[in-house]
Predict the structure.
Amino acid sequence: MTVIRRNKANGKLYTVKLICAAMLASFLAGREQLSAELVMNVQEDVAVARKILQSWESEEKLSEERVLHVIVWRCQDRDFPSGYRHRLQQIMLHIQDFYRKEMVRHGLGRRSFNLDIQPSGEIVIHEVVGHGNWNDYKKSDGNRIKEECAIVLREKGIRVDQETIMIFTNLAEWDSKKKIFSHKSPYYAGGDWRKGIAWQLDSEELDIQNLSRKKPLITDGEYGRISLGKHNSIFIGGMAHELGHALGLPHCRGSADETQFGTALMGSGNRTYGDEIRNEGSGTFLSRAHALRLASHPQFSDSLKGFGRRGQAVFRDLKVIPNGGQKAFEVTGCVEGWPPVYALVGYLDPDGRQDYDARATTTAPDQHGLFTFVCDDLVAGKSASLRVVACHANGDTTTIQFPYTVGERGIVDIRTMKCLFALREFSKVLAEQGVEAARQAVPHDKVASRYAVAVLRGREKIREMVKPDRVPRSVDSLLLSRAEPTRAVVGWAEPTYDNLPRKDPVLESGGKLFESGIFAHAPAEHQYSLDGAWRQLSGECGLPSQVGGTVIFIIYADGKEVFRSPIIRPGKTETYTLNLTGVKELVLVTEDAGDGKATDWGLWLAPVLTR
């Protein structure tokens, strides 16, 4: 009996194994089919994008070529790093080849940035000597160094504010005996399709030949004990990464199907550049989203057609629908633009991390401008934004942005996005024709119409407001946005209530819409006389998702601070409920968090006084 039972058990186990194997085979076959379909769709989109782009470029070809200008800068009491000309030549050619190979891999041809090459084959490298000594400079002195370079380059007919340039500084220290490295170089960049600047560092141990070296180990002031090869990966990769910013690329980790190629250059790929040479990983790749954007950059296209004009794109008939069991969504619409829009990039950007973890999805418009984005690479438990970037054939871009949220279980909430889509025509009419015309454009959607009516109320020329210390006792609550302040000042534009002073006027923050609120661009102050008539103030505060900025919100009651928010960034709001019993004067303050007031669009959201 024991033997018989064992054989039966083995038979059942064998049957289970067969079933599991069949299920696994079916699953893998399904994955392979989906993967094949994805690859085919991507290839088709890239082919469409390239066809549109080549049609534009072939119609007219200007002979002038845009080049990347390379500058080496040193302070007065230090020489340039040893062997800099040969090393930088090899480094820049290596980075140029990296971009070219990645463009080819994406099916976009042998495109890369142009270097200023002399007839001898050497790169033109401009030398600049700064006005100060080593101790006079720090990491934040990028603009100071740029201005010192601008004087020298201007004499050579180069305007730093009209070209794409890389400045290598000698603000690094390398002890070749002790193998210790540190630096205080500016190390950042920014730019677009017409101009840009990247600040880099140079040091004598930075050499393409050193990328393969697992030994010696060195002590890096920022990264600790690492191999000389990894040190070179980080800083040569950093050169490629910051150049990407100078060419107009934002941070992005790419799409889910690209992880097999390593780490995205504009994600954290600056730290993995060349890792594959040491068999320490897959290295770095250029994401499809960014390859598509670079394809029309004048440096990559060798076309200056339309260089003097900004691109314009109009999005129509935008719709959003959930799919994948509500764990994904699709956005469809129509885009028209000049110059032609050849590709669209969608950045799925979860809250935080400064775009480093932004996913990307790409598509191309058909002959009628119709497009569809499949958005399925979402991060659970995060509010997020979808930034849709229309890529124009002359290199420029047009961007629109909409919020969404994803619950802890991965269920996506697209209600705010759907509502904002419904409000687009209303907002357009309001911006172009004014309040009276916009009354006729209020959307039929019941939810969207509420926010449209609130905006119209806020835009009234003669806005009815009440003094909070004179409201009858029979009134239990009062929206603070409808209360008359004794003083109201904002850091930009004019005091505004229940709407934003821009083309997209609806109050939105942290993926939520609000019918009432106070625009308080930092630095701002709103004072109210209460005369002890109110018991409580409650509400939220935040920033619109479509802007950057950092803000601190503070509330004073009779001169005493009763609320101070942490530093607030787009994507999250802060709530408050305060006891105002006996308070005679209320002051709402918005500060810029110590980093300047640019894009600090502070919002007091749905603040309400109650008895």
Remarks:
- Confidence is low (pLDDT under 50) at residues 1-31.
- DSSP finds nine helices and 32 strands in the chain.
- The CA atoms of residues 446 and 585 lie 38 Å apart.
- The radius of gyration is 29 Å.
